[in-house]
Known about the structure:
Layout: H1 4-33, E1 48-54, E2 59-64, H2 84-87, E3 92-99, H3 100-105, H4 114-123, E4 126-133, E5 142-147, H5 149-159
Amino acid sequence: MRTPTTIFRLVLRSLLLIPTLPLCYLLAALALGLLPSNREWAQPEAGIPIYLDSNGVHTSLVMPVKTAQADWTTAFSPRQLSKPERYAHSPYISISWGSKVFFLTIQSWKDLSAGKALSALAFDQSVLHVEYLPQPKEGKDTKRVLVSPEQYEKLVAFIHPPQRAIR
């Protein structure tokens, strides 16, 4: 039979475990993110420029709107934009994927709360954030990567797989 002291210790340990789980997750993400991958990859001499863009909270993949491999206007119509006259002719498209809570409510780290983080990790919907952009400018938060047409075709297929007939 368990004594009240034993039960109290068990409850206390269980409560202490709750805040350590997100910390363990963050430490694992940091440690695994530092592991190099694709060490042999090198940019081709010529190819398609894509950009990795971050505002510190959200990261986006920025690609040309139209290439021989993809026409993103067919998947993400400029007519659906809130200001199509302003953005519909932009040469680049930004696509990012993630938590609906993060995209709609968190613009900087000061907006993050434990409740929003838990909601995003466990209970939230996944959404795509798509916007048309002018030519990106390289900088601290925007990195240009040149990919071959074959690599870009694989990337396009990963983001927008071909439609399959429903039987």
